[in-house]
Amino acid sequence: MLGWLRLMRVYQKVDRISSEHLKHWGLSVAQFDVLAHVGASEGMTQQELADSLLVTKGNVCQLLDKLEDRGLISRHQEGRANRLFLTDEGRRLFEEIVPLHEAVIAERFSVLSEGEQARLYELLRKFDRALDLDAV
Q1: Cα–Cα dist 23/34, whole Å
Q2: What pTM value is reported for the model?
Q3: Spatial distance between the Cα atoms of 31 and 90, rounded to a whole number of angstroms
Q4: How far is CA 76 from CA 12, 68, 70, 79, 106, in A?
C-alpha cells in the first residue's frame, strides 16, 4: 500500500510539473498526449488513440475537437473510422514541444542513476503487465 501511495504522489507531482510547462503553449497534459501520440503515429484511428491513452472514445472526441479547432489536428474519414493527422501547424508544434517536454521530464528523473532508472522501468513494466493479466 505504501508503494501505491508513493507512486500516486510522484505521478501527481510530475503531472503538475507537466501542466505548468505545457501552459506556455496553451496545452493541457491530455492535449499534449494526443499531439504526441498522433505525431508519433500519424494515420492512427480515433479508436487506436483512445486505446493507447486508456480513455473512452468520447473523451478522445472532445480532445480532438479542441485540437482541430486550434488547427493542430485533422481527421480524415476512411470507411467507418477517422484517421488522425497533424496539420502543418500541429507538426511544427510537435517538433518544438515534444523534445522540450521530454527534457523537462528527463531532468526530474536525473536524480536517479541510469541503473536506478532502468530498474524502475523494469519494475513498473512488470507491474503493468501483471495488471494486464488480471484484466483478462
Answers
A1: 15
A2: 0.85
A3: 12
A4: 35, 12, 16, 10, 34
Per-residue pLDDT of the chain (136 residues; tens, 9 = 90+): 888 899 999 999 999 999 999 999 999 999 999 999 999 999 999 989 988 888 877 788 999 999 999 999 999 998 888 899 999 999 999 999 999 999 999 999 999 999 999 999 999 999 888 888 766 5
Q: What's the chain's Rg over C-alpha atoms? A: 17
Q: How far apart are CA 109 and CA 125, in angstroms?
A: 17
Q: What is the rounded distance in angstroms from the CA atom of residue 108 to the CA atom of residue 95?
A: 21
- Work out the widest C-alpha separation in the chain, in whole angstroms: 49
Please report, for residues 28, 29, 87, 110, 129, the alpha-carbon distance to residue 17 in angstroms, rounded to integers and kept in the order given: 11, 10, 27, 15, 27
Q: How far is 73 from 87, CA to CA, in rounded Å?
A: 5
54, 14 in Cβ contact below 8 A?
A: no
76 strand-pairing partners? 83
Residue 120 phi/psi, 5-degree rounding, is -60, -45
